[in-house]
Amino acid sequence: MTSLSLTRKPGAAARPESLTEQAYNRLEEMIVTLALPPGAILAEQALSAELGIGRTPIREALQRLAREGLVLVLPRKAIIVTETDPRRQLLVLEVRRELERLLARAGAERASDAERRRFAAIADGMEAAATANDDIAFMRLDRDLNALLAAAAHNEYAARAMRSLNGHSRRFWYLHYKEAADLPRCARLHADEARAVAKGNPARAMAASDKLMNYVESFTRGTVNVRAKTRSTAG
After folding, report:
1. Distance from the CA of 160 to the CA of which of 9, 37, 100, 232 falls in 20 to 30 A?
2. Sign (positive/negative) of CA torsion 153, 207, 99, 219?
3. Which bin fits 207, alpha (ψ -120 to 50), beta or left (φ > 0)?
4. Does the reported pTM lie above 0.90?
5. Residue 109 in contact with residue 155, Cβ under 8 Å?
6. In this model, does residue 208 exceed pLDDT 70?
7. How buried is residue 155: exposed, middle or buried, by Cβ count under 10 Å (0-12/13-18/19+)?
8. Which residues partner with 78 through β-bridges?
9. CA-based nearest residue to 71, from 45, 32, 108, 102
């Protein structure tokens, strides 16, 4: 698998992550991969000790996660990892589909040469994750791809809106993919989108984005149906 550093922002290879970025990336991954499950109560001091990062970067990372809806901050009471709901996830996808298409097209048109090389590297990494059926590698590459799409599109408004949706989609996928998803197929669909952007083909990038979103929506609806059948059987 192509090595993709998690200590720098895609498209800006020389700039190291700040402590707040490190804290955010580690906490986001822990929430998305359910190491911090829905309903978990968090404490700044405990997280600081566990991650070896000071309380101020931890606090700033939690504030960002709260803005994205992954944690709920109750002042002077608690910080709680939010719940997830398949039906609400369909609403997330309704918005994400349009934004993903826009970012894919704009990225294909506007990405720098360095960003195009990063898209190609992510595509190779996704293919390797698909072959190995490696869910953690896939999740990290997915985060890299999301960040790179936002950067390469050079549209701060679309990027800001997309950031509020990505964590919800990633966590929902990880929570349910073993029930109704095909990780290798999903990884390859991401690779197709990344490769189309890398090659500067807007039409192909939009088509790849649509194909990916069709699959993700089908997976989400499948999860809703599985849960409905489970409840019906239990009743």
Report:
1. 37
2. negative
3. alpha
4. no
5. no
6. yes
7. middle
8. 74
9. 32
Nearest Cα neighbor of 148 from 190, 201, 183 is 190
Q: Pick from 234, 59, 201: which is nearest to 116 by CA?
A: 201
Structural contact between residues 193 and 146, judged by C-beta atoms closer than 8 angstroms: no
Q: Is 207 exposed, middle or buried (0-12, 13-18, 19+ CB in 10 A)?
A: middle
Dihedral sign for Cα 148, 152, 153, 159, please: positive
Query: What are the E-state strand segments in 77-165?
Result: 78-81
Domains, the chain, in order of start with CATH, read: 19-81 (1.10.10.10), 86-225 (1.20.120.530)
Question: In 3D, which of 119, 195, 112, 191 has the Cα closest to residue 154?
Answer: 112
